[in-house]
Amino acid sequence: MAALFPSGRWRVSSDHHFRSDEELAQERALQRERATSADALTAARGVFGIGGVLAWVGVGVPFLIGVWIAIAKGAALF
């Protein structure tokens, strides 16, 4: 591998900073074992569990209460 410095000189970097093909194959095999889903949607975000449900309830309930109050006050104008 080579790197271009701002001075314009090329420097060859040492190969010990990079993984060998065997190490890459081993890491890819481990990643496949750890994956819970091959689906791209859940692979990027993980599993939607009880924490997600509680977070949406914690945000959604006050939001819906605010919407209800806004509709009730808006209805009073008519």
Q: How does this model look, in words?
A:
By secondary structure, this protein is mostly helical. The chain has one domain. The chain has three helices and two strands, in the order ββααα. It has helices spanning 21-34, 40-45, 50-76; strands at 2-4, 10-12. Strands 1-2 form a two-stranded antiparallel sheet. It is elongated.
Strand content: 5-15%
Radius of gyration, whole Å: 27 Å
Number of helices: 3
What profile does the largest beta sheet have? 2 strands, antiparallel
Q: What letter string, H or E per element, gives the SSE order? A: EEHHH
Structural class: mainly alpha
- Morphology call: elongated
Give the tags:
8% strand; elongated
